[in-house]
Amino acid sequence: MNTYNCLLTGDGGVGKTALASVFTQNIYPEERIPTVVDFMSRSLMHNNKRVNVAVQDSAGQIDYTRVRLTQYPACQVVLLCFAINDANSVENVRKFWLPEARHNAPSKPIILVGTKGDTRSEEDTQPFLISKTEAEKLRKDCGACLYVECSAKNRINVDYVFISAVKIMTGEIPLEKPKKKRRCVFL
Ligand SMILES: Nc1nc2c(ncn2[C@@H]2O[C@H](COP(=O)(O)OP(=O)(O)O)[C@@H](O)[C@H]2O)c(=O)[nH]1
Ligand SMILES: [Mg+2]
Fold first, then answer.
1. Is residue 140 in a domain?
2. Residue 184 placed within a domain
3. pLDDT of 65-95, one tens digit each?
């Protein structure tokens, strides 16, 4: 059976563990359980074949950087998460998580994951919500293959995140082509 390995990264508190837990066990943890390293998996049918999806959960805290860096080599896709209602977590994608992924997994594909998608329906009470257009711009800027918005709480698009990761690993979803460098023309 083929195993496909993905690594969840992103700020602490954005919902990485909840996402992994709902996908692998269909359990949504209401409380935050701080993660250092965790490894979960689930098998599913994909194109009439049983495949195993291994999910590496990681610690978002800077203190655990050394531990987290050991997790990049085994993964085939990085699931870079931010919470759609948390401006800091969005900012840290560019500032911290993308550089870390590019440095430690230079050629590995990235899926940008917007977590806590359920908060979109609380537009009036949320002090911050990234728009879908801004999220798509962030995806482009990061060179990520895909932007997926999901909610572990409401179980929306959770399987879609991981099935998309499998499709990237099998080549069914094409990788983002590197941006063409502007050529300098001498006249
Ligand atoms: N509204 C909402 N809250 C969520 C969702 N996923 C996780 N949370 C909450 O966010 C907090 C942090 O979740 P956790 O999975 O521990 O985040 P991690 O630190 O990234 O692993 C917890 O209180 C969760 O209940 C979601 O889809 N929607
Ligand atoms: Mg966690």
1. yes
2. no
3. 888 999 999 999 999 999 999 999 999 999 9
> Which residue segment(s) compose the domain that 141 sits in?
2-169
CB neighbours of 22 closer than 8 A, spacing ≥ 6? 28, 152, 155, 158
Domain CATH for 105: 3.40.50.300
Domain annotation covers residue 21: yes
pTM assigned to the model:
0.94
161 lines ligand 1 (CB under 6 A): no
Mutate to test the pocket of ligand 1, among 92, 129, 148, 153 (most ligand atoms within 8 A of CB): 153
For residue 80, what are the β-bridge partners?
9, 112
Q: What is the pLDDT of residues 151-180, one digit of tens each?
A: 999 999 999 999 999 999 999 998 866 555
Please return the burial class of 166, using the count of CB atoms within 10 Å of its CB with bins 0-12, 13-18 and 19+. Answer: buried
Three-state DSSP at 172 gives coil
Burial class (CB in 10 A: 0-12, 13-18, 19+), 117: buried
Contact predicate 161/79, CB 8 Å? yes
φ, ψ of residue 110 in degrees (nearest 5): -120, 135
The residues near 74 (Cβ < 8 Å, ≥ 6 apart) are 5, 7, 56
Please count the structural domains in the chain: 1
Q: Does 162 map to a domain?
A: yes
